[in-house]
Amino acid sequence: MKNNFYLKLGAIFGLILLLLIPRAYIGGIVYERQGWRQKAYDSIGQSWPGAQTLAGPVLVLPYTLTYHTKEKILDGNRREKEVVKEATLNDALYLMPEQLKINSRVETSERYRGIYQVPVYTSRVEVSGKFNTQPILDLLAQNKGHLIRFESPRLSVLVRDQRGLIAPSALTWNGAGQSFKPGAELHNATAGMHAVLPELKPELQAQRLQFAFALELRGMRAMNFALLAEDAEVNADANWPHPSFTGQLLPEQREIGKDGFKAVWRASSFSYDVGGGLEACRKGNCLALLESSVGFDLLKPVDVYQESERSIKYAELFIVLTFVVLILFELLKKLRVHPVQYVLVGTALLMFYLLLIALSEHIRFFYAYLTGASACTLLLTCYFGAILRSHRFGLLLGAGLSLLYAVLYVILQAEDYAMLMGSMLLFVVLAGLMLATRHFDWYQLMGQGDADQTGMEKERGHA
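RE: above sequence
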């Protein structure tokens, strides 16, 4: 009896290890479906603008600096003399707004590729602010005595994906109207638009030049704003109830409800190195202007694959716990459960995760979880009643399994406390088993009590 029991324990342990193979296969299905979803996103991204970033406006003032340099040369008598040469330098002055205000109203919808849904949006953006011409006066003061000839300035606006730029309004520049043209005209950053401005005539005192324009920007999954200003404010209003705020600064104010959200960001040139981005742009890397941004992602309320992946991590607990309970019933009720029956029980437990993945792609995760858990619990309740030869025991095990599924769902929904609740679940299960079996005579249950008692009496007789 003793050897047979240990052999059976070894066989059950081997079965648990074998069940890890289909468990790993189910985990692979999750990764595979995630890959198919990403391909659906990429497919939609080929025909719809991707995640957008709006940067600017940036005032670009090209100029030519003419100055004189002195050089020493050797004349015909090989005597050194000093000559004056004229040199020119072509450069541009990049100015960010002194004040910038952006109001964005985002209307979202969903596009489909097969069973996969991707959030897309159209954002109506209103931009206004003013530039300070003090940097122009500073440039003239630094090159006093040199000739500076300014060319036609332009106002450049950058976006990450040119396809999303729809019908911008005319630019209102210092009270006059100017039209936009495609392309940002900023070195390696070509996506966007620009407007050629009237010539700026340097005055004795700094001027403040006001501007305003509006545009529609289409994108997918995320919207960001690069706060290229000494003092910037962004107001975003969207009909998406599940935003994830991203970027270097979180919004100062936010309201999130079932009908959407509102958020307000405020920043200054002291918040991050805006001047460094402009300097990088002057040297040829204008894509750096898109990096320092704030914004939001349009998250799906429930990532079914992430939830499924997290639930699969508890598969081993369900299998081990169920097998331990069956072993206890074997010992207490002197029943014999065949290893094939253990395999069927373990397979039924794993079937829940496969049902969960398949159903959650078509219905809400809660209903998919409820359907899969109910189906597997009902199946195992009937099967437990048959192999334990007691409907009462079958109902008891089914109720315990239902409780475990309910606790697991709560853990899956509590993302921030998942590890804490999972640890507590393991502790409660272990404590329950220890308390329930604390008075068991394991030697007697395994049929070793009489043999050990006989052996002890023989040893006393020989003594």
